[in-house]
Amino acid sequence: MTSAPPPAVVPPGPAPAPAPAAARPADAVVTARELTKRWGSHVVFDRASFEIGSGVTGLLGANGTGKTTLIGMVLGLHRPDGGSLRVNGLDPETAGALVRARVGYAPEHHNLPPDIRAHDLVRHIAELHGIPARVATARANDILWQVGLGEERFRAVSTMSTGQRQRVKLAQAIVHDPVLVLLDEPTDGLDPVQRDDMLALIRRVGTEFGIDVVISSHLLEEVERI
Q: What pTM did the predictor assign?
């Protein structure tokens, strides 16, 4: 099954240290009704209806089954061919900018700028979300410590291991304190120990940070552990 090219990095965001969860809409979920999406003659979704509630939710499917396509539609980057999709009560097709302001995203592929320092990248993403420079700097520091990169936060992304880059992607996805974060294959390329650590970190995001999480994966065991 052929899916669309992965969306480009979209400004994401978190909360500083595990502080009380920020106020968020009561409907901070994804709702699809009769959702249809095609790529040419290939049907990815055929009148699919479902809801994604609060907490940590696994989006399970083999590679090429449309997980990334769904993420792209949630972000307003791909238009459905039929039906309706709502994110926090908003239509991504008509209110894409507002949806992306409330949603964080960590893509599957490692397309982070290689020469930028992790701290500078996360701070820049925070500023893109309208957070003042001084606050953005503090948030970048806080969130990089929270994801386990406090000592490495001033290293260039190109010098980091795969596991560290995955943590940078998570940090930039939650630095603006979103109500929902979309993680596309966040354990890709990780060894068993790194995978356990990442899954534990994702659970923290959904509990201590109070951010709803959708984790896309092709591994049933991984989704069950979340």
A: 0.84
